[in-house]
Specification:
Shape: globular
Distance between the termini: 46 Å
Largest sheet: none
Order of helices and strands: HHHHHHHHHH
Number of domains: 1
Number of strands: 0
Radius of gyration: 21 Å
Length: 265
Amino acid sequence: MYLKPTEPHTIGGVLDDAIKLYRSSFANVWVLALCAEIPISVPRLYFEFAFKGINPNDYQALFAAIQQSGVGLYYFPIMLVFQVFYLAITASIDSVGRGAPLGFGESLGIGLRLLLRSIGMGFCFVVIIVIGTILLVVPGIYLFGALFLAVVAIVVDDAGVFASLGISWRLTQGHWWRTVTIYSVIAILGAIVAAVLGAVVGGTFAGIFGVRSLPSIVANQVLYFAVGVLIMSLTPSALLSIYYDLKLRREGTDLAQRVQALPIR
């Protein structure tokens, strides 16, 4: 059972919080995760069949298949739909963390309300990262780790485009390495789960029916979809846990500074 922390935790403690929050909120978000997975599964399924018979190393033929399909035109609306559900998932997980779970409609309403704001933040985020990368690779990497909590600030604190970036920047100052470490561990954990399930299920069907056979293609797509739904809420749970921890640390630092600033009598 998840209980929102009231004091900062160690890296291991935050990771434990993230897993607990993920498990406690899964029943509340799995339908949203399923809806989020549907739009990104459609082009994946299409390409699986479109690329059938094409040598994976023949990049010219692969690119020609993509151009001929015109599916690239649909990526923008697909990502908009996905972003709405991602925001809704984050809001739903946060509501579980606060002990006041939101329903499907309430979460989706928040996702729709925050969509334009998140797009504006995402545009600014990309511009900043690109500029940092062009100047030097290291600043780009640092800026990514310093600003990637902005989307959480939009959902949790209803922050604006620039305010969300500022909140993420302030919270991660002095805690960049722990923030990136926690996020990386969760990302690796999700990748391992997906890889293991893919190797077991995909390998079984490929061994029986052949790698490019119809049963193998269908099995792989069903697996991708199921794994996507399973781990969709893992990253938001980790980001929220990091955000909660950093806010507690920042509040503690601010309180200590105010105490030190009091006149001595």
